[in-house]
Design a protein that fits this description.
By secondary structure, this protein is mainly alpha-helical. The protein is built from 13 helices and no strands.
């Protein structure tokens, strides 16, 4: 939670930086919705067409800002309110789990994927529609949350994965009934991308984006003897750091259980917790 980050220690600008990206996005979406509603009320809603995405406007007239502005065009409704609630809650949990940089990368891909897909479809003469609204993106954030915590219990003890399957199925049938083929393709594309990216982040396959150092390959002039000496003299400190890392990971798992319940743990997290438990029991027996 934001309160858990000791926000009272931040200055005015630093406190804004301490907010979750998901929270800032929800605030931005709500502000944009209010502004658009007011503009429509005073009959200058034509500005709406300067922000939706179409390949012709983006590439023929070089309106590249449309790649980033189309999700902020939303009409006031109860569904929009529910969507913002999903982004605020599930988006923060995803960001808390994967980190700010990974969440920003995830959301950026989900944001840019529909315009890129629409552009390619139009090149083949399949689609001519424009893009406006944020539903697919923010629903994909919910799918990312489910990919992280598939066993978390929702309504009446139902696991999160079954809730997600039901929602995806209902919306897919709705689009099929309306013969909205392009919308259906984009919807499934966003959901699939969210699951794939979460898997890649969870397995560390995106770590190279943040750890890549071009100069690394030019720093192999350390002798083997020096490396061996470093191993000999640093063994106690390495063990200490390893023990600290294990305690830190167990603390994170316990915090996750307190927030989301034991059903949210992955298989690897359950194994880590079981190993820590067996180690603690062995220490207790040794002391006795």
């Amino acid at each position: 939670m934001i309160a858990g980050r000791n926000s009272h220690h931040y200055g005015p600008l630093e406190w804004i930086g301490s907010l979750y990206i998901a929270t800032l996005l929800a605030i931005g979406y709500c502000a944009a919705m209010v502004i658009e509603a007011v503009l429509q009320a005073i009959r200058i809603g034509e500005i709406h067409y300067w922000f939706l995405f179409t390949p012709e406007a983006a590439f023929h007239y070089f309106h590249f800002w449309r790649f980033f502005t189309y999700p902020f065009l939303n009409e006031p409704s109860i569904w929009f309110l529910m969507e913002m609630g999903m982004l605020f809650f599930f988006g923060r949990e995803v960001e808390r789990s994967v980190g700010r940089r990974n969440f920003l990368f995830l959301y950026s891909v989900l944001l840019l994927l529909p315009p890129v897909a629409i552009t390619f479809l139009q090149l083949f003469g399949i689609a001519t529609a424009g893009l406006a609204g944020s539903w697919n993106i923010n629903f994909a954030v919910f799918i990312a949350f489910v990919a992280l915590y598939p066993r978390m219990e929702f309504f009446f003890g139902i696991a999160a994965k079954w809730v997600a399957i039901a929602l995806v199925g209902i919306h897919s049938l709705e689009l099929l009934e309306g013969r909205s083929w392009i919308s259906l393709v984009l919807f499934w594309l966003e959901c699939g991308a969210a699951i794939l990216l979460i898997r890649m982040i969870h397995t560390g396959r995106l770590a190279f984006l943040w750890n890549f150092k071009p100069w690394y390959f030019f720093r192999k002039n350390i002798s083997l003897g020096k490396q061996q000496n470093n191993r000999v003299f640093s063994t106690p400190s390495v063990r200490k750091k390893s023990d600290e890392a294990k305690h830190h990971s167990v603390d994170l798992i316990l915090e996750k259980i307190s927030r989301l319940g034991i059903g949210s743990l992955t298989h690897s997290e359950r194994e880590c917790l079981e190993k820590a438990r067996s180690t603690l029991l062995k220490k207790e027996k040794h002391l006795q």
